[in-house]
Amino acid sequence: MPGLVNPALPAGALRALTQPRLVVDDDLTLRPWRADDADAIRTAFATPDIQRWHMRSIDGDDEVHQWIEDWTTSWHAETDAGWAIARTSDDQAIGQASLRSLALFAAQAQVSYWVVPAARGARVAARATRALTHWAFEVLRLHRVFLLHSTANPASCRVALNCGFPAEGTLRGYMLHTDGWHDMHIHARLHTDL
Ligand SMILES: CC(C)(COP(=O)(O)OP(=O)(O)OC[C@H]1O[C@@H](n2cnc3c(N)ncnc32)[C@H](O)[C@@H]1OP(=O)(O)O)[C@@H](O)C(=O)NCCC(=O)NCCS
Predict the structure, then answer these.
(1) pTM
(2) Beta strand pairing call for 144-150 and 167-177
(3) Ligand 1 centre from 158 Cα, in Å?
(4) How many domains does the chain have?
(5) Is residue 156 situated within a structural domain?
(6) Over the stretch 44-93, which tens digit does the pLDDT of each residue have?
(7) What is the position in ligand 1's atom list of the atom closest to the CA of 156?
(8) Which end of the chain, N or C, is more open, meaning fewer C-beta atoms within 10 Å of its C-beta?
(9) Is residue 45 domain-resident?
C-alpha cells in the first residue's frame, strides 16, 4: 500500500554529517564522547538520581567503553546522537545531552540529559539543551524535539521550562521505573517556535 506522506527527512541525513563540537557559551561545550571520559561516566552512573531517572547502572570498564562506543554506532544507525557536556576551560565532561529515539521520517527526537552532582546549580542542562536543540533545528532540520520527565522529577521540569520547552500535558502511567509506573510530563519545542 503506497504511503501518501513523504519522509520529513531522508534516511542518511544524520550519518552524512560529522558529529560537531557545539559551543554552548563561554563556559560550556558539547563534544563527542571519548575513551578518557570513562571516570566521569562511572561517577555519573554511580549517582543515585541519575540511576533512578535513567534506569540503568554501569558495571565495570567494559560497560563504560561499550557505552562510549554505542554513541558512534547509533550516530551511523541514525537512532541516537549523544554529546558530553564539557567545561570549556579543561574539556572535562560534566554531563550529557542527547537526542534519543531519532525518527528522521517524522523529523523528531527526544532530548535527554544528566549533570554530575559537582557541576549542578548553574543551569548546565538547560544551557546545553538550548544549544543542542538549536543544532537539531538549524543543521539537522528536525521539526520537533520533545522531552519526557517523571512528574516526581521537578528539577527536570525546571530544566525543560528553562530551555524553552513548554509543557504539553501529562501522560498517565506512561513509563515503568524501578518503583513502578510513573506519570510523565511531556514538553516540546517546534522548529517554528524559534
Ligand atoms: C536534572 C538535572 C540535569 C539538572 O541539573 P542542572 O542543569 O545542574 O540544574 P540546576 O541544579 O541548575 O537546577 C535547575 C533548576 O531545577 C531546580 N531544582 C534542582 N533540583 C531540584 C529539586 N530537587 N526539586 C525541585 N527543583 C529543583 C533548581 O532550583 C533550578 O531551578 P531554577 O531554574 O528556578 O533556578 C540534574 O539534577 C540531574 O542530572 N538529575 C538526575 C538525572 C535527571 O533527572 N535527568 C533528567 C531525566 S528526565
Answers:
(1) 0.97
(2) unpaired
(3) 6
(4) 1
(5) yes
(6) 999 999 999 999 999 999 999 999 999 999 999 999 999 999 999 999 99
(7) 1
(8) N
(9) yes
* Cβ of 156 below 6 Å from ligand 1: yes
Cell of 17: 554529517
Distance 167 CA to ligand 1 centre (A): 16
Question: The domain spanning residue 26 has which CATH number?
Answer: 3.40.630.30
Instruction: Give the type of residue at 57.
Output: S
- Determine, yes or no, domain membership for 132: yes
Tell me the residue range of the domain where 39 lies.
22-193
Burial of 62 (0-12, 13-18, 19+ CB in 10 A): exposed
Q: Best of 51, 113, 171 to mutate for ligand 1, by most ligand atoms within 8 A of CB? A: 113
Instruction: At 62, list the grid cell.
Output: 567494559
Whether residue 6 is contained in a domain is answered as: no
Let me know: does 183 contact 170? Beta carbons within 8 Å: yes
Say yes or no: CB of residue 120 within 6 Å of ligand 1: yes
Q: What is the pLDDT of residues 99-146, one digit of tens each?
A: 999 999 999 999 999 999 999 999 999 999 999 999 999 999 999 999
